[in-house]
Amino acid sequence: MPEKKNILKIILPLLILTAGIIAFRFMAARRHSPAKKSIVIHRALVKIVRIKRENRRVLIRETGIIHPRREVNISPQVSGRVVYTAPNLLAGYYFKKGDILFRIEAVDYKLAINRAQAEVAKMEYELAATRSKAQVARFEWLRQHKGRPLPTDSLALYGPQLKNARAALLSAQAALQQAEINLRRTTITAPFNCRVKDEQIALGQYLQTNSKAATLIGTDYAEAVVPVPLSDLAWLRLPKNWRARRQGSRAEVQIQDGGRLISWPGRLIRSLSEVDQTGSMPRLIVEIPDPFNLLSPKSGRPALTMGMFADIIFKGKTAVGVYPIPVGALRDNNTVWLMNKEDKLRITPVRISRRNRNEILISDGLKENERLIISNLAGAVDGMPLRLEDNGQL
User: Fold this and answer.
1) Whether residue 90 sits in one domain with residue 211
2) Is the dihedral of CA 265, 270, 276, 279 positive or negative?
3) CA torsion sign, 387 to 390 to 392 to 394?
4) Cβ of 229: how many Cβ atoms within 10 Å?
5) CA-CA distance, 112 to 12, in Å (whole number)?
6) Where are the transmembrane segments (predicted)?
């Protein structure tokens, strides 16, 4: 028995060791070598547009204030009691040139004409009588002084008396003309097509000469005063004188009315001699015809209100051979991102010709048909691998 136990102690570990070796070799034979992993290059997704070279009209958008071109205070040139006022002589109403605004009592001025006419008749009689006396005196002088020349400016021949009579007649005629003018001035009319801004007159009121009765503004034209940056003046056509005013840059005047965009045509006609209140920008004048739509009532536009702010879009000169790009495509104020032929990022410096509200005009640094990246990239570096999004080319 002891011998069997000793044999088991020796054989059992050998069996266990042999079984382990067999199992290890079996497992090793079934194990596969690890597959090699392929290297994946991650490419950033981008959207692009193709660059095109164009001639582009420069648009300059600024804000201006609407003013009347003409504004006058109406004052009578003669004094008197107001006996008539036009029914529409109220703020906001319109008049055509020559329409009657109001009348001043004319009785005194008609009497003044009668007196002046009588004075003219009297002076005509005095001149005729003096001429008759001069003829008689001349005849007598020639009869008494045969062969002698007539003296000049002789009281005896009524020379000075004739001059005085002629002067008195001219004075009486001038007084009559003045009386007739004063009578016409009792009727005050609109000096041009106008709208009443305000009035300080009532029926029965006594008006002194040159006292203010109403303020009128012209309706044929309005003007917009527009501060414009000095750098924008080179893109505008500014007339040098009144005759050349039709050669100025065209403009569009826009306002928002209850969510509706309303526009009027305009034209740059001149510049003012001083800068705006900030002291940095010159001020330009844009002419706006028919601001109250009296000539085109079917246009549906409201009347422009004087003193209101409006957007002024100047249609400036044409930028030749530039590359328009979206505002968001400009990086770091002077570079753009391009996708090169190897589908990699190329950061390119550019020269800016003009910045508009919705686009930037590039004059140098780009080529026709290059691929401009318009989407944003995190950590963009030159040479970054790129790929287009689905439908990523615009």
Assistant:
1) yes
2) positive
3) positive
4) 11
5) 159
6) 6-28
pLDDT tens per residue across span 46-88? 899 999 999 988 989 999 999 999 999 999 999 999 999 999 9
Summarised one tens digit per residue, pLDDT across range 288-330 is 999 999 998 787 788 899 999 999 999 999 999 999 999 999 9
Task: Provide the pLDDT for residue 392.
Answer: 52
Listed residues 317, 332, 348: the one ending a domain? 317
In the block, tokens 């008197």 appear at 80
Q: Is residue 20 situated within a structural domain?
A: no
Two structure tokens written together for 81: 């009691």
pLDDT at position 205: 95
| Residue 11 placed within a domain | no
In the three-class reduction of DSSP (H, G, I as helix; E, B as strand; rest coil), residue 392 is classed as strand
Q: β-strands 386-393, 206-207: how paired?
A: unpaired
Q: Residue 3 domain-assigned? A: no
Contacts of 341 (CB under 8 A, 6+ apart): none
Same domain, 242 and 309: yes
Domain that holds residue 171: 106-185
367 assigned to some structural domain: yes
First to last CA, the chain: 97
Contacts of 23 (CB under 8 A, 6+ apart): none
Q: Using one digit for the tens of pLDDT, what is the confidence trace for 115-143?
A: 999 999 999 999 998 888 878 777 776 77
DSSP tag of 327: G
pTM flag (> 0.85):
no
Residues 305 and 352 in one domain: no
Token pair for residue 359? 């686009």
Q: What is the 8-class DSSP label of residue 7? A: H
List strands edge to edge, sheet with 371-373: 345-349, 335-339, 371-373, 44-50, 386-393
How far apart are alpha carbons 296 and 263 in whole angstroms? 13
Based on the fold, state whether residues 149 and 180 are members of the same structural domain.
Answer: yes
Question: Domain check: are 211 and 79 in the same one?
Answer: yes
Q: How far apart are CA 349 and CA 279, in angstroms?
A: 34
Q: What angle do the packed helices 107-144 and 159-184 form, to 10 degrees?
A: 170
Mean pLDDT confidence for 336-356: 91
